[in-house]
Amino acid sequence: MNQKKLNIGLIGCGFMGRTHSNAFRQAGVFFQPEFTPVLKAVCARTADTVENFAAQWGYESTETDWRKLIERDDIDLVDIATPNDSHYEIAIAAAEAGKMVMCEKPLGRSAKESAAMTAAVESAGVANMVWYNYRRIPAVTLAKQIIDEGKLGKIFHYRANFLQDWTIATDLPQGGEALWRLDKDVAGSGVTGDLLAHCIDTAMWLNGGIAEVSGMTETFVKERQHQLTGKVQPVTIDDASIFLARFANGSIGQFEATRYARGHKALYTLEINGEHASLKWDLHDLHRLQMFDHADEGRTRGWRSVHITDGDHPYMDRWWVPGLQIGYEHSFTHQFADFLTGIASDQPLSPSFAEALNTDRVTDAVLASAETRQWKTIGN
Ligand SMILES: NC(=O)c1ccc[n+]([C@@H]2O[C@H](COP(=O)([O-])OP(=O)(O)OC[C@H]3O[C@@H](n4cnc5c(N)ncnc54)[C@H](O)[C@@H]3O)[C@@H](O)[C@H]2O)c1
Question: Is 0.85 surpassed by the pTM of this model?
Answer without folding.
Answer: yes
